[in-house]
Amino acid sequence: MSDSAGADEAAGAFKKAIEKGAEAQRDFIKSYSAVQQDAIHNFFSTLQGLTYYNAMFKTTVQSGGRISIPEAERQALNIGDGDLVQVIVIPIHRKKDTVPE
Predict the structure, then answer these.
(1) How far is CA 56 from CA 47, 72, 81, 95, 101, in A?
(2) Which tops the pLDDT comparison, 83 or 39?
């Protein structure tokens, strides 16, 4: 085999290797993109589920630790007197700097 034929064969093998690498990258990007799309879809589905039957509002703690659910939220969620509700409390501002011990 001549040097020219050997060089052509090596160049052809190199070209095939590059093409296979590029194809592998395309396949990886396609599968990664599909995983990302699934993750985004799941995130928004979860977010929608969390907000569909829930309300978020600010209220002030009254004497005796009582809080009120605003009328608009009660109507939107069809909450009436005597209904059992789940409350998650996240303090956002304290009236006093110190917390009693």
Answers:
(1) 13, 11, 19, 21, 30
(2) 83
What's the CA angle centered on 9, arms 21 and 2, to 5 degrees? 160
* CA–CA distance, 59 with 67 (Å, rounded to integer): 7
Cα torsion through 19, 21, 25, 26, rounded to 10? 20
Q: 98: which DSSP letter?
A: S
What are the φ and ψ backbone dihedral angles of 96, each rounded to 5 degrees? Answer: -110, 150
pTM exceeds cut of 0.85 = no
Distance CA 89, CA 60 (A): 11
Under a CB-based contact definition with an 8 Å cutoff, are residues 79 and 85 in contact?
yes
79 close to 69: Cβ distance less than 8 angstroms: yes
